Amino acid sequence: MIMKYLEKASAFVMKYYLILIPMYVATVIPALFVGSSSSDGVSQMMGSLGSLDYLAGNPEAAVKMIMPMAFSMIGFASAGGFIAFILKFIAFPATCGMINKGIDTGSADLSDFTPSLSQNIKKYLFYWLGTIVVGIIAAIAIAILFIILGLLAGALKQVGVILMILAMIAMVIAGIAVAVLLSFWFPSMVIDDLSVMDGLKKSVNFALANFWTILSVNIVVMILSALVAGIVGAIVGRIPILGVLIVQIIPTISNILLLVFYFMFYKEKENQTVVE
Q1: Statement: residue 150 has pLDDT above 90
Q2: Residue 237 main-chain phi, psi, to 5 deg
Q3: Fewer CB within 10 Å, N- or C-terminus of the chain?
Q4: Residue 3, Cα to own-chain centre: how many angstroms?
């Protein structure tokens, strides 16, 4: 059954491959930006190795030389993150709209980008704000839990350490579960034109009813994506610019594949519910 869903999603992506472009651009431009700045920083550091003896005997000179490079790399990385955020903020809601239209009408291309963006950008803004609220609540809960575990570790010694390790494992599992439960949050808002709170409730209820199928598909796509990315990266990863352009195709395809699965699976199950 899992392969059936992946085959249908893959067929959709191959048929409407042009809708990959916005998310690919949103992925590859920040990667190029950060990658080039990191390479420049590394080159500068490598160039300073010739004066290593001098720097070893003059720590102040070493700090003066290394700190600007480090801050420059951090600045470029921050700028790359900001660019990634802006591009994704535009590409993601538009792509979701194009996927939704393609499934409903059997037609989707880049001409649908602007209408899809205008229809879904407001929903995405509320969805994004909702994810921030959920993230803050989760962070507070984790912080409180770690404080309690820290006190227990100090009081119970070895038993406390074991409890902390078990709690960390439990948090990883809980994080995966929450990701599954929230995976249909924005798709449900797009498909059913729901508010952010109604979309959250719908996503949780829907994912709970289909938890293991959703988790299994995510695991399969993640493993396949990692394997392909590793192979492609080993072959072309070291080629300047071109390597980045090719390697970033893999996460783009895997992300779109999962999005298509979410939309198809949600529509299929909801239609079955209506018929019943």
Answers
A1: no
A2: -60, -30
A3: C
A4: 23
